[in-house]
Structure formats: structure tokens, C-alpha cells
Amino acid sequence: MAALHGKNGSIWIDGTKVTYKTEWSLNLTRDYADVTTFRDGNKVYASGLRDCAGTFAGLLDTAGDLTLSKADGSAYTVKVYASDATHPGTSTNVLVAEGPAYLDASVSASSTDAVRVTGNFRASGTWTVY
């Protein structure tokens, strides 16, 4: 296994690479039901469904920020890459996960920083995690 630097990561929405984003995260949590009974030596859980959700952040794309325009309540295909071969000098794609998702986004401006976009995505169907 080769270690990867995050500088070649990317997020894609409906086949278009999202520009000016500096980070993303993917959270793969599960629901758990407490099934502990008398005489168990500790708490016992049953595993439920996986939740695929994540966040993104970066700079506002003044030419039209895809993460803002797609935060409209519709589901879009989201792909998150640890390494994206569309970056110059990068030859390997490392796709981490992909699937349909709803997007939310927010914009913040400060007198001491660049205008930034943050948001999240939530699965609207079955995701594939590689």
C-alpha cells in the first residue's frame, strides 16, 4: 500500500469535477440496536443499516459554484477520490466511494479570509464504497 497525500483528492458531482474545494470527508456510520439481555456480561448490539454521508469545504467558485447550484433538493451522483488522475502529474485514480446524494451548502464571508463554501452530502440511494 502506498500512502497518499490529500493534495490530489477531489469531489465530483454528476460527472463534473468540483473546483476550488480543499477538503472532503466521508462518514460511514451505522445504526445499532441495543439487544442486551439479562445475564449478558456487557452491552450487546445488533448492527443496522450503514449511513453514507460526508462534508466538503473550500473556496467559492465565482464562475458558478457547482456545490451551491446542486443544493436544490434533487439527488445527484457524488464521487469522492483520494487521488484523481485529472490532476497534472497524477496517473492513478483512487475512488473511495460513489453514489446518489442530496447536497446542502453554505457560504461564509469574513473580512479576514477568503469567501468559503462548506456543505454536506447524504445518501439518497445505495452507495458503493471501494
Q: What does the model show?
A:
This protein is 3% helix and 56% strand. With 130 residues, the chain is mainly beta. Strands 1, 2, 3, 4, 5, 6, 7 and 8 form an eight-stranded antiparallel β-sheet that branches. The longest helix has 4 residues. It is globular. The model has no long low-confidence stretch (mean pLDDT 94).
Which radius of gyration do the C-alpha atoms yield? 18 Å
Sheet with most strands: 8 strands, antiparallel
Range of helix content: under 10%
Mean pLDDT across every amino acid position: 94
Distance between the termini: 14 Å
Structural class based on helices, strands and sheet pairing: mainly beta
Number of strands: 8
Strand content: over 45%
Number of helices: 1
Shape: globular
Poorly predicted runs of 5 or more residues: none
Order of helices and strands: EEEEHEEEE
Say what oligomer this is.
single chain
Topology overview:
Elements: E1 10-13, E2 16-17, E3 21-34, E4 45-59, H1 66-69, E5 76-83, E6 94-110, E7 113-123, E8 128-129
Antiparallel strand pairs: 1-2, 1-5, 3-4, 4-7, 5-6, 6-7, 6-8
